[in-house]
Amino acid sequence: MRRSTRARRSSGNTRSRRLLAVVGTLAVFGGIVAVTQISSAEDRRPGKPRPAAGACVQPSAGATPPAGREETSRTWQDGRWVRNHWGDGQQCQPGTGGGSGSGGSAIACPDVAGELPEVPRRARAEVERNLGQLQAQITQADRRLAADGDRGEQFVRDSILRPLATQRRATLARITTAIDRFGPRPQNLARLAECQVAPVGGDDGGTDNGGGPGAPGTGAPSTGAPGSGLDVLANNCDESRLQAHDGFQNGNRCVSTAFGEVGAAANNPSLLITDFPEEIGANQPFTLRVSTRNLIRDRFLPAGQGGYYVESSLLNEEGLVRGHFHTACRMLGSVDAPPAPQEVPAFFVATEDGGGGAEPDEVTIQVPGLPQSGVAQCAVWAGDGSHRLPMMERANQTPAFDAVRIQVG
Q1: I want to staple 350 with a disulfide (CB 3.0 to 4.6 A). Which of 68, 88, 120, 155 is the partner?
Q2: Which domains does the chain carry?
Q3: For the region Disordered, what residue ranges are annotated (predicted)?
Q4: Per-residue confidence at 237, pLDDT binned at 50, 70, 90?
Q5: Shortest CA distance to 309 belongs to which of 378, 258, 355?
């Protein structure tokens, strides 16, 4: 379902249901709102030695990916890797799916889901199946690249990239035909067939979490402060360029309780789910499109490595929050009362890609499916580097959060 100006002028009942969905979800995630913010894009403690990393802990329930899925998955969108960390980065061992600092190269193909027009409801199942085939083709090519990539550029072009492009053209043609049966024909999807080899690592928009003795995944004991070894940029207001916050509704101030910097109202982050299906089948893959504004998606400290709530929120030179955003889907047992907050969602990822800015831009989230019939609530909310919902200048501003309901059955 693609949102439009017309869609937003729906009936009062629809608006009320949507408001209740967002308010109810905010109540569940309300514990995140105790947020903090401090400023600056550069590391403001250049002379401070990096402490040793903390020991890994076991991920909480629901934080590990299903069998056969990577802990960190990636898609190539708008010339950059978009990484999705299953369970918000709670795994001790770094994921092999192109996570931050993983190094090496991988197959980078143009994003198809984000280029499709609104898919007619009767075509969605076939389109989603073919989108899954496109991902499987990339995975197979990635494995071939890992095994034989050292045989030279010519081999990679002739034996990996060209066959992959042929497979993708056939799959893209099937997607075009499926949509054309029930709606306007997509134009020139074949332009998305060609792929390339792109470097994967900490220098492509992600967060390099460092290494060395006691690095994440080594199991070494902690010898430093909470979050040690994660390149925490700030945890107090000592070096902020902003004046002290006085407890009133004023922006561009620094909270002395080490919560960090809060920007002016016009610079506070915002986001919206701009496209989502109204109905899906159980275990049917689908996509959500998320548009963010005033959120620089370049900070992500893995929770499983001690990065949860340990870094103060940061603003860049333009006064915009640095962080990432989360996407979660859960089944609702009732639409008349809030769900139990401790229940594990059916789907949860954190997304960081080095993008974002003052102007809105979109990221496509691929959900592998929801396991049971009923009403699902899919929510998206911004987070700073340590996963907290960013503060707003005023108490009566809406935070960077959105939620929709999807019928599963």
Answers
A1: 88
A2: 5-45+52-97+203-408 (2.60.40.10), 105-199 (no CATH)
A3: 40-105, 198-230
A4: confident
A5: 258
